[in-house]
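Q: How do we represent a protein-ligand complex in a form that can be generated cell by cell?
A: Start from the inputs.
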Amino acid sequence: MTFAVDTDEPGHTDEARHEIGVDLGVKDFAVISDGERVANPRHLERKARNLARYQRRMTRCRRGSMNRRKARAKVARAHRKVRHARQDFLHRTTTNLVRRADTIVIEDLNVRGAMSSASGTLDQPGRNVARKSGLNRAIADCGWGEFRRQLEYKCERAGRRLVVIDRWYPSSKTCSACGHLLSELSLSTRHWTCPGCRTRHDRDINAAKNILAAGRAVAGNTPGDVCGAGVSRQGSSLPQSAVKQKPRAARRAT
Ligand SMILES: [Zn+2]
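Then emit the C-alpha cells for the protein with zinc ion bound:
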C-alpha cells in the first residue's frame, strides 16, 4: 500500500477545489493524476492462495465425513478473510480519495467486458492485460465494481462530485500536455516521449491526467474542449450531483 495518508487539516477539503483523475489498472490498483500510486495489496493475494489450498484439501475428504465438515469450516473462514481484506482495502482507498478531493473522475470500467474482451483495440492497460491467462481472477479480485459503488455513495454523503467518463476515451494514448494522439502505444511501454511537445510521460499518470481533463470537460468546469473527443456522460448510474448541472454549465462554457 503506497498510499500516503495526508494529515487532515480541518476545513481543508471543504475549501480546496482539488480535482483528481483516477486510472484503474492491474499492475497498480489505481494511479492518481497527482502522481500517487495505490498498489494492490499483497496480503490479499496471499489470502486468496490460502483459500485455494483449503478448497483443494476439502475435495480430498470423503463426503459426509467429519473431516470434510471441518475442512468446509476452514474454507468458509478463508473465504471471509479474503472478503474482509478486499473490503478493507477498498474502503481505505475510497475514503482517502474522497477526503482529499472534491471532484473525482473515473473511467466507466465494465469489469465483465474487461474479463472476456477479445478486442485488441482497447486503450486501458488493465483490459488488455486481462486477456493473458491467470489475470482474470486478479481483475475480479481487485474489485473495480465495488470500488465505484463505494466512491458513489461516499461522494454523495460527503458532497463531493464523482464524474464518470466514457471508457472508450483514449486516455493512455493522448498526450496530457499538448493533446497529441498516438496511433498506438504498446502495453509494455511504461514511459514515452510525446512527438508533438517532447514531454516525457509515465503511462499511467498521463492516463490519469487525461481522465481528469475529460472529466472537467464533461462536468463543464473548464471552458473550451479539453481533450473532449469521445467523452460522454454516463447516464443513470451517476450520482445526481455529477449529472444535474452538466448541460447548462457546458453551454455557458462554450
Ligand atoms: Zn505532447
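The longest helix spans residues 66-100. Residues 175, 177-178, 180, 194, 196-197, 199 surround zinc ion (CB under 6 Å).
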